Amino acid sequence: MYASKFLPLTRERRRGRYISPHGSKTWEYLSIFACTLLILSLGIVLGWNSPMVVLLSSPDSPIHDNKLDISTLTALLSTGQMLAPVINVLVTDKIGRKYTILLCSLPLVASWSIILMTKSAYMWYVARFLSGISVGVGFVVAPIYLGEISSVKTRGANGTMISIMCNIGILVSFIIVPYYSIRNTTASFIFLSICFVFLFSFIPESPYYLAMRGRMEEAEETLQKLRGRIDVSDELTKIDQFIKKEENNKIRFWSTLKDIFTIRRHRRAFFIIFLLTFNNFFSSYLPLIFYGQLIFKEILSTVSDYTINIVAGITLLLSSIVTGCFVDRLGRKLIILVSGIIVGICDLTISSYFYAKDFFNIDVSSYFLIPIIASISSIFFCNLGFCSILSIMMSEVFAAEVKVLSTCILGIIGGILAMINDQLYILLAISLNYGHGLPFFGFCLLVWLSTALLYHFSLETKGKTFIEIQRELQD
């Protein structure tokens, strides 16, 4: 047997560590839960912005410093994300996926500690920058790790756990940040991050990474643990063959960079993930999450903006669960197409409402439910078709030799797009007094264009192995 040259299995049989010949997914699910506990913490970071924007703009602001700028505080989170990909390139293939994920919790704990201990605007800028580093590292390395430990049949559903846990974190922020003191909420967020570090320390490394480093015995042991059975020779053989093939093609930085844009399968994978990233940051998703409470205050007169913000958070969570249920049934392409069309319609509806209100001075107060329903629907389908699918496909379409560098470049691009969106939205809607109509109309056009391109260039990855996906990308 192939596996026997790596590890004598008879000893493991005598110990009875793996009883069922059909295997068990206990360790796979434990690993997924532990990894996505970090994503929960990062979701809290993202959701923290919306209620804090309203609080910091009020007379009861905890920071009485005229140097505090809301859009800068938001944009620095995205700036930190731009630095994170460099860290990913330097450490992910050197110290491993597990220890890179553990490493990214350090700036997160540091950022909450700064917010806990100081009320200086400049120090809060530093804190948000540090948390941006954690967001950038976590949302890139976690999908890689989950994609490499997941079995083929569960990879799509497991990938959606990133979105589910992120949205639980956002909802937690929406609920507790406005009603509890900064000291209490921040202390609880620090405690959650420490719990993650403790739990994830016991989780196994990615078998793909171990195979890449030539540690085949450890890779086999890890696969046995994750699959809950002794015989993992077929999967280990595929991993070993895949890694050897990629190692033969592995080259230096500039050559790898060249390959991303000159080899068809790498170029196509890069373009697919770029379009999904673009849709994430240039649809209405980001403003509705970061500035949702501010936007809802301009729409509502009879319902609390806090209440609608919580409804938005629940909507995010529900959409992630729906993705988990249907992504391996309906497939990625259909979900992307339907979501893109509906999001564009919702953005156009919101834009029309604000244009009628701000430029034509029409009394639209009695129609407030229309933009609210459109906003909630936009959040639902943005998360369903773009955010959740992005985390899944990022782990599916990149070949091993270009995965880290590709995600690094896309992470930097994503940070730039998010920073542009953060600053441009406030500039157009508030500073230049164009209102919310113009940005949402732009989102409508951009989403429809990018969705059309996505549907044309992307491929269906449902139920396919890495090798089959790479073969299709090359066709």
Measured as a percent range, the helix fraction is: over 70%
Rg from Cα: 23 Å
| Main sheet record | none
What is the succession of H and E elements?
HHHHHHHHHHHHHHHHHHHHH
β-sheet strand percentage: under 5%
Number of contiguous helices: 21
Distance between the termini: 34 Å
What general outline do the C-alpha atoms trace? globular
Q: How many β-strands, per DSSP?
A: 0
Question: Which runs of at least 5 residues are low in confidence (pLDDT < 50)?
Answer: 1-16
**For this entry, what is the oligomeric state of its chains?**
single chain
Category from helices, strands and their pairing = mainly alpha
Query: What is the averaged pLDDT score?
Result: 82
Topology:
Layout: H1 9-15, H2 26-56, H3 70-95, H4 97-103, H5 105-117, H6 121-149, H7 155-176, H8 182-200, H9 207-212, H10 216-227, H11 233-249, H12 253-262, H13 264-281, H14 285-290, H15 292-299, H16 305-330, H17 332-358, H18 369-397, H19 400-431, H20 437-457, H21 466-474
